[in-house]
Amino acid sequence: MPLFKCTFLGCLCPGVRRHGSCSLCNSHLCAKHLGQDFHRCPDWRVNEREYWLKSKEAEIAEITALLSKVNLRALRDRAAALRKVDCTVTPSYDHQSRPSVMGGMNYHIPIYFVDGVTWIYRIRRRNMTTTPLAHQNRLILSEAATYKFLSSRTQIPVPKVHDYSIDSPSNPVGVGYILMDKLEGKPLSNCDFKKAGKERILSQLADVFADLKQHPFNEICCLLDPDDLSVGPVLDESTIDADENGNLLLLGPFKSALEYRTSSIKHQIDLILRGESYTNNAIDAYLVHRFILDSVIESITQNEQGPFFLKHMDDKGDHILVDDEFRIVGIIDWEWAQTTTQSEAFAAPLYLLDVGLYYSGSNKLNPKEVEFASILKKRGEVGLAEHVYGGRVAHRLAHCVGADSGDIEDLPNHFMGLLRAVFPGRNEGETWEQWREGAMMMYEKDEDLQNLIQRCSK
Ligand SMILES: [Zn+2]
Ligand SMILES: [Zn+2]
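Above are the sequence and the zinc ion SMILES. Below is the predicted complex in structure-token form.
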């Protein structure tokens, strides 16, 4: 069954994931009811000002409702008992404090101890885009487990986790949480590290890669439980589903890269056919996923027999906190971390890419990536350097499979980039239009494609 049902009165269709969830009017909408004839919320591309005004109102309502569920006294007592030092808990939400207390998925309440130490109470935001509670609880446990793994087995700087709890009636604080150190430092994505800090940052990043390489896993998975660091299914949002009773269905863990990729792509094809993803470009997305499954994925996974390695799956740069001297203070936001193939785990983090060039479809490496690879090479980490040089396959694949951005321009560029990265020299100069025409012919007898064409022509 769909993860979300369309909330339009009388509609029985599945809600479109991500952009079908509107926090402005608190709706899940199917492809039809997302259309302008039915859905009247401001579109940020058309009326940016009105969109942001409405968003702000919705966010205030969301945070007010979330805070009303938190038992602040129980939270203060818990923190004070753990540290045996008195503290105060002061939630804040205003224009000025917003960037420091919330991100897209989480909200932080600072806990101030009388001796000057500060912790944060990290809780999951709740709005129409929020996945089911069972998934949210697994994310809390997995993130806490990942922090425990990193702090106990590696030298990678991370905040210390002092306590955690899932969202359940036995949690006296009322909302599932992670209680952790607050780190000082600013996000790397806010810093210009082109000159002074570049070498220092890349060198510390090389330390992180070299450290993660020392910790192989037998499976592609997420860490499951902070108590024993056991492993469990993959929690990436694009891979989750629900059965007919609304119970969470998850993929993995996987013993092989081929099994993992095949399973993720088939799931995505299901979502496209069910009208839950890529509703703006369903035929393109179907052809791309089908073709990758049939003709690309074996080439990518043939040298990926394992072992597998932990990766921060949201490495855009705001997850790294640095001081004024570009020393990494800590790496945060590990909620989506999972183990994966070496080529994906050790491809350059996204913040080293020239995003404009990359999104235009070019596979040319950014000078920062080249410099990073050469630092790894100089240290004798030739294998890691090779993964950085060859990183485009992993980057493109991640942006082709299950990465429905809602922008129909993205998929052709990522997909043609993927083909050029996996099969260099083959069909050189082929355009997206030419490839698509060929794929339509290749799959003309495919029943699912025909049904989709019919659905899209209505
Ligand atoms: Zn709306
Ligand atoms: Zn509907």
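Residues 1-55 form one domain.
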